[in-house]
Amino acid sequence: MTTAPTFSKEERIVSNQLIETLFEKSNSHSVTAYPLRAVFLKTERHEGSAPVQLLISVPKKRFKHAVDRNRVKRQIREAYRKNKSLLASTVEDGKMLLIAIIWLTDRHFATADVEKKVISLLKQIAKDKS
């Protein structure tokens, strides 16, 4: 019996050190599927961490109300959770993939559209992995 895909605490980027490493200009790569942009980096895996870790950012500049930011983050999280298997074979042993997904517009999109864009980003990352 297979279990439903989940998005656990270990799969989230919470370390400031990892966030700084991810956003260093020299190492990371970026892909865009409007209204989303993904910044990703393949690095050495830390003890007890998941092979793929995700950060979701919806700037306050885009949505002033927390309820709007939370809705968009929920849509992105759900789309990633359902489709994270697209990245399963891209990470070798001893390595980990850090991904930050950033919302670029101040408009809401339907959940189905957000899911299509997240799938597009994940496929581009799987293809572009360095």
Give the structure's gist in a few sentences:
This protein has about 130 residues and is of the alpha+beta class. It has helices at about 15-20, 65-85, 110-130; strands at about 30-35, 35-45, 50-55, 95-105.
How would you describe the overall organization of this protein?
The chain has helices at residues 16-22, 66-83, 111-128; strands spanning 29-33, 36-44, 52-57, 95-103. The mean pLDDT is 91. It is α+β, with helices and mostly antiparallel strands and 130 residues long. A four-stranded mixed β-sheet has the order 1-2-4-3, sandwiched between helices. The protein has one domain: Ribosomal Protein S5, domain 2 (2-Layer Sandwich). Helices cover 33% and strands 22% of the residues. The radius of gyration is 14 Å and the shape is globular. The protein is built from three helices and four strands. The termini are far apart. A hairpin with a 2-residue loop joins strand 1 and strand 2 (36-44).
List keywords for this structure.
130 residues, alpha+beta
> Helicity level, as a percent range?
25-40%
Low-pLDDT segments: none
CATH architecture: 2-Layer Sandwich
Q: Kindly report how far apart the N and C termini lie.
A: 34 Å
Shape: globular
Q: How confident overall, as mean pLDDT?
A: 91
Number of strands: 4
Question: What count of domains describes the coordinates?
Answer: 1
For the biggest sheet, the summary is: 4 strands, mixed
